[in-house]
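Board notes (copied after class):
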Amino acid sequence: MKEVEIYTDGACSGNPGPGGYGTILKYGPYEKELSGAYDNTTNNRMELMAVIKGLESLKEPCKVTIYSDSKYIVDAMTRGWVNRWRSRGWMRNDKERAKNVDLWEKILQLAGKHDVRWVWVKGHADNEYNNRCDRLAVEAINKGPRLKDNQVE
């Protein structure tokens, strides 16, 4: 099984507002950068989209390490929150619906094809790839054009 590292970050100018994602895939000496932007979205949706775009880029099952500065994503995946939300009909508790269900469902589908390990990294710190992903996300917001994201939660 190929071993791939995926670094991800999302950014938003206003929350909600224009947002972007940045993703870097590393396989041995090879690197691939991905980015994109949406008109009306949230930071969490862009963090999730960065993961989705990275996983969608894989053409075969891989051993994947995903690095994210989003505790929302890493904790949801490593602490089993997302599986609990799904088992409860996407309810976080008795009264509160989980947000971004459409993107969580996509991540679960994509991650299920791979052997995935989730690693939290401190944002805006000394991880060069996380910092590069942040720049990719911000550049995507600023250069446009941005896609419509009508699923703001």
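Comment from the instructor: The mean pLDDT is 93. The two ends are 37 Å apart (CA to CA).
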